[in-house]
Write a structure and sequence with these properties.
The protein is an alpha+beta fold. The protein has four helices and 13 strands. Pfam families: NUDIX.
């Protein structure tokens, strides 16, 4: 796939959870915060590299979706995994939001003018050494993606209702660095969403679950 071609698989099925985007702003943190930090299994709250990801919720007329990417198989870190656009914070980045928007533009060509940041999820500490700030945003279609062919194999959308449905939440385990570790997963139509990406989706689920209706 060339960098000018965008593979965007639109969802054809939904979950059973109604999603009210009006609740989203009230459920999220207004600013990046270490309050309520989420740690992957076996990770301590130590000195980790700052990073940020964009959690893009697309305002589809039928129902909101979440835009995800699949990393290319040749990458050194997390090859082939499902992820949010994002990466480590650079010195020139003014904020986690700036990092997330920059990375989304670089990885999938998502224009910042179509992105409205609505809040933040608690920092997510990964076993691979990063302190990630999830930046939640609403994306207004139509939009055209331009994938970085080196990093991104595919971009696709999953109904937000599917990701927020507890019936689709799984808990798995694996041996990592000599220990048994547990992680969240949400298989969807041949895609295996797991690890940090699934963990941050679970943070969104918990935030919406406890927010006022």
């Amino acid at each position: 796939m060339s960098a000018t071609e965008a593979s965007l698989a639109l969802p054809t099925g939904t979950g059973n959870v109604a999603v009210d985007l009006a609740r989203l702003r009230h459920a999220l943190l207004a600013e990046p915060s270490r309050a309520g930090v989420v740690l992957e299994d076996g990770v301590g709250d130590e000195d980790l590299l700052p990073a940020a990801v964009l959690v893009p919720i697309v305002r589809r007329m039928s129902e909101p979706t979440v835009l995800l990417t699949q990393r290319t198989a040749h990458l050194k870190d997390h090859p082939g995994q499902i992820s949010f656009p994002g990466g480590r914070c650079e010195v020139a980045d003014r904020s986690p939001a700036h990092t997330a928007l920059r990375e989304a533009a670089e990885e999938i060509g998502l224009a910042s003018g179509q992105v409205e940041i609505v809040g933040y999820l608690p920092e997510y500490l990964t076993s691979t050494g990063f302190r990630v700030t999830p930046v939640v945003a609403l994306v207004t279609p139509p939009f055209e993606l331009r994938l970085d062919a080196f990093e991104v194999e595919e971009a696709f959308e999953v109904p937000l209702s599917f990701l927020l449905d507890p019936a689709n939440h799984q808990r798995h385990s694996l041996h990592y660095r000599g220990k048994l570790r547990y992680y969240d997963a949400m298989p969807y139509r041949g895609y295996f969403i797991w690890g940090a990406t699934a963990g941050m989706i679970m943070s969104l689920y918990r935030a919406l679950e406890v927010s006022p209706r």
